[in-house]
Amino acid sequence: MPRGNANNQAKVFYKGTEEDFVIFADSASQVRAWKNDRSIPIAQVVSGFKIFITHKHGAQGVLDGASKATLENEFGTSNDDEVIIKMLEKGEVQESDVPERQGPKNDSMGGRTAH
User: Fold this and answer.
1) Which one, of 36, 22, 28, lies nearest residue 9 by Cα?
2) Are 7 and 100 in contact (CB under 8 A)?
3) I need a surface site. Which of 63, 96, 98, 113 has the fewest CB within 10 A?
4) What is the mean pLDDT of residues 4-10?
5) In what side-by-side order are the strands of the sheet with 64-65?
6) Looking at residue 3, what is its pLDDT?
7) DSSP annotation of 96
């Protein structure tokens, strides 16, 4: 039985002057729909209101949470909602397929018989 709840993963990558930023979206099509129709609530577009930095390692770097000071330096505000809107407007949407997780859940549980 497959585990995991997502078949694809979408993220918005924003290359800043000091840092690279990433937010996760529900799907690339939702981001495109939001760009065409701003009446769609942001909560229906993004997977969470957490902004990550990759320490200038591009979209594939290690993700750390962005500090308020980092957001203030790059975007002129530390308000997460305003930063996410700027990232959705100017960032690059990337989508990738995530395979379902298959396989045994715990191999060490073999041989469980009463002694």
Assistant:
1) 28
2) yes
3) 113
4) 65
5) 64-65, 52-53, 20-25, 8-15, 92-97
6) 42
7) E
